[in-house]
């Protein structure tokens, strides 16, 4: 077991609301904190009392409740939960047009457990994120079973006469990025954690049922980054569109710029729904949108508009796509997740990852532990 120390931090910060399309600060007043918390409590009670099975995964009843298949916006309006919309949208970053997603996905990302945690206004973190990975590396390296910076180049899922599948993995040789060494791994069981659409690649050899199911997913785009020299205010700048319910931003777009302890650095998060053309979802395309937004915010504040990148440096840009892979309400009602979960163990292949549960590390860890227990026959605890 890999262990890392944790500590508790308080979540505080000053927020302001801007229309990122115009760059203007807007007079949006979010609901009072107590109204938001009361709404979240009512939401959590509704989810927990009616859909408690969602914490474990997509173990839906044969007759899926209609309320899980309607849009989150319709559910909110049905239960008079408007006070939670802005908060829910921010928690649902990376889910595209969050108001239109089936309530099933909103109930999983905005889980009762997360609502309870939010009331503490704190979170548990490790002061050294890399420590977990270094200790994991040390543990796996003891058995010589770790292949860092590797690529699966070939996969043969058919079983040989001894009952083994074969996986070919390529790794860099020394510091030479172009020189590659291929290693053949024989295994009786395989755990796959890539997003399901990635398993549609010909080299993976998807079965007809996998092809049928994985092709139904629509996955969103989600990016994060750090910029230096943006000359933005030292606070959290949330994107706001007064034409939308609760003034949530229109996607694709930037969710928020946040100041950091370093005075010249800001972080940003950017999202786009699955329907957005993929050719715009490139590092260059996202950088261009971020820079244009910074220019609008600067211009509206009376600061000189930048030419080109105008002194703005992109310290880091990360693409988390494909993100929040979902199907529509009709597919949910037709038993999509029952068929998906029936793939577990077929051909000695097992599956986990956010598409199989949710983008919540604690819940996903529990789900993965259950998958591993079924895969290995070794029960937890």
Automatic annotation (TrEMBL):
Organism: Pyricularia oryzae (strain 70-15 / ATCC MYA-4617 / FGSC 8958) (Rice blast fungus)
Protein name: Amine oxidase domain-containing protein
